[in-house]
Design brief:
By secondary structure, this protein is mostly helical. The protein is built from 17 helices and no strands. The N and C termini lie far apart (about 55 Å).
């Protein structure tokens, strides 16, 4: 596209085109860095030509946020990009304090930064707090907008996960998220995204209940109900299929921990997750969850089928990590699967498998410290096996 190098509006048009391309690539889990860089360069040129242009600051913030999201996918540090985006958007909001798209983007950038910091074991409270506060400002402008309430719900869901990772009670955050979902659905009862978020919040409540020794089943049942409603409205909603699979996986883990057969829940989980990766073959979370299903099935399978299930787990986890090289939990699934094999092996083969499991689990926890204490326990077991010690036998409580 040929543009007038001295015309700010022409550069803004160019920036918008590149930003749309970057958004398209991210939706398809493709590398969006080049398009985001081009959008940011064009927006900066527009800002140089028109220093008081609010629109140039807004588009620069959008582009920098997209570049940060791309950095996460590329395994790079996105924080400088997210900081640049927030700075540009704040400068724009000083010129236009009631600009809803800028508030929406600033809140989204803050939450994406919070997600990254949470996964890396960094204190994410500041970024999450900015996201909640910014979305609240947006609601003051648009109190009846269902999407704004849904964004608030997503922010509280992340806040709850962060609190839980620090062994602090997340239920208040989850309750506020559920209330926001209810407000979104009051404005639009067929809003599938809000039904999906509500299902995830009930899932997180169930996970916390089980962690505290309570009964997660009533909460998981509500999660299943909400996600089924989302899928009835949009059967091609890959994220909802993934989340439904995660609910069934949680149900299977609960059954196994209680000495019950997890197979029925595992079959339901596999069905939902297979649908998710059929709809979006580049959905790393769905592949990671599918790996977890295969590994739990292998832990309860007879010797004749265990090997094939472990291989299926490894293949799904490798697929997840290839799509998102920063997903430490995908590496952890590979390590835990090899640990399972090691516990049933003998002699040098046992130690060889255990050493490889130890390497994968250590790297996984380096990449994603919040992956979970269960993987830390698995790392200790792998280290013991690698040293030739005899650990306790595999159990349903293994990760």
């Amino acid at each position: 596209m040929e543009i007038d190098a001295d015309h700010a509006e022409a550069w803004l048009i160019q920036a918008r085109i590149h930003a749309r391309r970057a958004e398209f690539h991210l939706l398809r889990s493709e590398d969006a860095a080049a398009a985001a860089d081009a959008a940011l360069a064009a927006a900066r040129r527009a800002s140089e030509l028109a220093p008081e242009s609010f629109e140039a600051l807004h588009i620069a913030g959008v582009a920098a946020g997209l570049r940060g999201a791309s950095s996460v996918e590329r395994g790079e540090d996105p924080v400088p990009w997210f900081a640049l985006a927030a700075n540009s958007l704040r400068r724009g909001l000083e010129l236009h304090p009631r600009h809803a798209p800028s508030l929406l983007t600033l809140g989204t950038v803050a939450i994406k930064r919070g997600e990254y910091e949470y996964r890396k074991g960094i204190d994410a409270s500041s970024a999450i707090g900015l996201g909640v506060a910014t979305y609240s400002r947006l609601l003051e402008l648009l109190p009846d907008l269902p999407a704004a309430h849904n964004n608030v719900a997503a922010a509280y869901q992340l806040q709850g996960r962060f609190l839980a990772s620090r062994d602090r009670d997340p239920q208040g955050a989850y309750d506020q998220g559920l209330a926001a979902c209810d407000r979104a659905l009051a404005g639009n009862p067929t809003y599938a995204f809000a039904l999906n978020n509500r299902g995830v919040l009930w899932l997180r409540r169930g996970e916390w209940a089980q962690r505290q020794g309570g009964d997660p089943e009533p909460l998981l049942a509500r999660a299943r109900e909400s996600l089924a409603a989302a899928l009835a409205l949009n059967p091609t909603f890959a994220y909802a299929h993934n989340n439904l699979g995660e609910v069934e996986l949680a149900w299977a883990r609960h059954a196994a921990a209680g000495g019950l057969d997890p197979s029925p829940a595992l079959q339901r989980a596999e069905q939902a997750l297979t649908k998710a990766v059929q709809l979006n073959p580049r959905h790393p979370l769905a592949w990671r969850n599918l790996a977890s299903v295969k590994r739990l099935a292998a832990a309860h399978a007879p010797a004749a089928t265990r090997k094939a299930l472990v291989e299926a787990c490894l293949a799904a986890a490798e697929r997840a990590h290839a799509i998102n090289p920063t997903m430490g939990s995908a590496l952890a699934e590979q390590g835990a699967a090899l640990l399972l094999e090691a516990q049933f092996a003998r002699g040098q083969e046992r130690q060889r498998l255990a050493r490889r499991a130890q390497e994968l689990l250590a790297e996984a926890l380096r990449q994603e410290p919040v992956a979970g204490p269960e993987y830390e326990h698995a790392l200790g077991t792998a280290a013991a096996l690698a040293r030739g010690e005899v650990p306790p036998p595999p159990s349903a409580r293994s990760p």
